[in-house]
Amino acid sequence: MKKINLACIIEDDPVHQMLTQKYVKLTGLVDNLIVCKNGKEAYNSLNALITAGEPVPELILLDLNMPVWDGWQFLEEFLKIPIEQKITIFILTSSINEDDFIKAEMYNLSSNYLIKPIKLQELNTVLSEI
Question: Any idea which residues bear 4-aspartylphosphate here (predicted)?
Fold first, then answer.
């Protein structure tokens, strides 16, 4: 299994944020973690890393329903940034809305659509496949 140097959790709910962080750490597959509370904060943080020539996350766990910028707004803007490094994005949401599944397909993320709360075994499987 390949270890991930840097991952990013974009989640506004403190309980899900804490649970996801805990599980990511328990997998032992991620060395460093960035946590952002909404899409705008994540976009600004990641864009700053890119602009500075710093490594960007190899993995992003993205909630959809957040204040300021939701997950869709984040994706719309983030995917406009030219990035050479491979980034795997997983939508991690409580939404079971069919429209969200369809929209995920537009971003080629339908197979990367996880319903929260995520379980440790599921996260281990996801991370081992990256």
Answer: 63
Structural domain of 21: 4-129
> In CATH, what number is assigned to the domain containing residue 16?
3.40.50.2300
The pTM of this model reads 0.92
Show Cβ contacts of residue 92 under 8 Å, excluding neighbours closer than 6 positions: 11, 20, 61, 62, 63, 114, 116, 118
**Domains held by the chain: number:** 1
Cα–Cα distance, 42 to 79 (Å, whole number):
13
Q: List strands edge to edge, sheet with 113-115.
A: 30-36, 4-10, 59-62, 88-93, 113-115
* Predicted confidence (pLDDT) per residue in 38-61, tens digit: 999 999 999 999 999 999 999 999
